[in-house]
Structures are given as C-alpha cells and as structure tokens.
Amino acid sequence: MATITHQNKDEGTRKKKESIVDLSRFIDKKIRVKFQGGREAAGILKGYDALLNLVLDNCVEYLRDPENPGTVGDDT
C-alpha cells in the first residue's frame, strides 16, 4: 500500500497517510476506470502514484452515447 509523508516547515513532519486504494494488485492487468464527469477508459495498468495518477498501456476511451448522455456507448 502506498504511504505518503507530508512535511510542513511550521509543524515539522506530519503522520503518514496511506492510500485507501491498493492498486498494486492490478499492475499489468486490464482495468476499466470511470472518471468524474462520466468519462471511461480501459487499459493495462503500468503504474500509479500517491495522487492516483494512472499510467495505462493500450488505452481505449469510451465515449458517451449522444442520444442518452447518462450512458456510455461502445464507440471509442
């Protein structure tokens, strides 16, 4: 699990925070990600950081259905 240490010059070192999501078990596996705002992408997870920035290989973005914005179509 990822561990982050925050340092503030006024307070010294704060306690460590752990990520609530353990993505290490998904490395080199195909995942599908749903973003805020409704966008979706699928690909092979190659890496990530403490801020949950993702590196996806062979990524495909799925577009919303123009007739029904609440659903994601099969178009890429």
The secondary-structure element order is EEEEEEEEE
Tell me, rounded to a whole number, the average pLDDT: 79
Beta-strand portion reads over 45%
User: How widely separated are the two ends?
Assistant: 33 Å
Any low-confidence stretches, pLDDT <50, length ≥5? 1-6
Query: What is the overall silhouette?
Result: elongated
Please tally the helical runs, counting DSSP H or I stretches of 4 or more residues. Answer: 0
Largest sheet: 3 strands, antiparallel
Radius of gyration over all CA atoms, rounded:
17 Å
Structural class: mainly beta
Record the strand order, biggest sheet. Answer: 5-6-7
The total strand number stands at: 9
Query: What is the CATH architecture assignment of the domain at 22-69?
Result: Roll
CATH topology of the domain at 22-69: SH3 type barrels
CATH first level of the domain at 22-69: which class? Answer: Mainly Beta
User: What portion of residues is helical?
Assistant: under 10%
